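Session log. Operator J.P. requested a structure for one protein chain; no other inputs attached. Running the standard single-chain path with token output.
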Amino acid sequence: MKKRPNILLIMADQFRAGWLGCAGFPIQTPQIDRIAARGTRFTRASCVCPLCTPSRASLATGRYPRHTGVQVHDASLPLDAVTYYQLLRRGGYRVAAVGKTDLHKDLHEYGERGDLPYMYHMGFTDLCETEGKMNAAWPAVREGKPGPAGPYQRLLAAAGKMEDLTRDYLDRLKNRPPWYAAPSVLPPELFHDRFVGERACAMLRGLPHDSPWHLFVSFVGPHDPWDPPQCYYDRYRDAHFPPSIPPDMDGKPEWIRKRAARQTGGMDAEGLENMKRHYAGSIAVIDEWVGRILDVLEERGEAEDTAVVFTADHGEMMGDLGLVQKSVMYEGALRIPLIVSLPGQEKAESGALAELPDLAPTFLELAGVRPPDLMDAVSLLPVLEGRAAELRPFQLSELSNCQMLFDGRYKWIRSWNDRDELYDLLEDPEERVNRIDSLPDVVRRMQKWTFRQ
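Structure written below.
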């Protein structure tokens, strides 16, 4: 029997697809680039929901949000859901996770060690779950008293720094504009993504060699608040980045116009550049710890026996079209980095229409475990192994107020209570000219894919 590979899945939160050195962007990501040097980078990969919780539920199940029961932010994956984590465990894998999972977002509780029994039901055998980026500042309330929600907050409380983080994030939330960015009030050794990286290295070092394993390392950055430690921000304090797409609202629906005015009203060029510098500093933290995790993998002698993936749950607008953060269907928020390195693979790029949940059947196929029939996702292995160039005729993404369909050239955004949009990404990659009224034949052709998955 062919040896089943270990699986190392590294995820960032709200990471722009193109902000990688290996993608030609003026930023230093040498450790993530190590994965790309021996793997396939999917240049048009997308999330199926540009929102944390639904996206991660879809990854877990290989299903679109409409089928998972998770279509909003503060929700939990239903207990009767079938996850690929469960199926890997049933197939003999140790299934470990460190960091943010968002599988029970409505319960702001993660356990003293980050290993609540709920997560064992979801399929994990080894756990150190933490709060998400913003949630790390809000203590849990038990019997009317505030206290640490999980292991990261316990670390901050023990160091006497919990109140500092809460005070800073409350100020950002209540008194600062959405594009505000400033270095962390915490010392580098207490920064959240360092905690995730340290625990991931410790988890990996401690995994027994008696069975194959799947380790999910989920960093909480570079999600806002944009607050890297000062020393990481300093690497980019004088940097200048490519310009953002101008905030031209011609042809955009009213809800987008209102969002842009709310998010970036009053932001000048220096404010935009400052935000990008802090975002880059946040990426630098993650990249450093990706390298340390890869080093531990080599120390264990398992680099040649492990499939390694770097990806994100969704992207980040970072000022494009006058927008920041997520929850829109434009390229900045929709596209994700997706780099897959299989044992023995060489460097490659693919323009196949990959979706984040495709990792679920991919991992199951690598493990020799049959995927459930109800999965919407498809395995990436035909493309990774050179047996196919395409995966599907279109990509789908959905939010509670809109849906996106993309056929490789045309993107149709359907707003349920507002104006639809249609963009020709071949001629208009910046999504500035809404062609919904001038290309009715394209819309009619794409209608056959709606509500079919």
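Operator note: The chain is about 30% helix and 15% strand.
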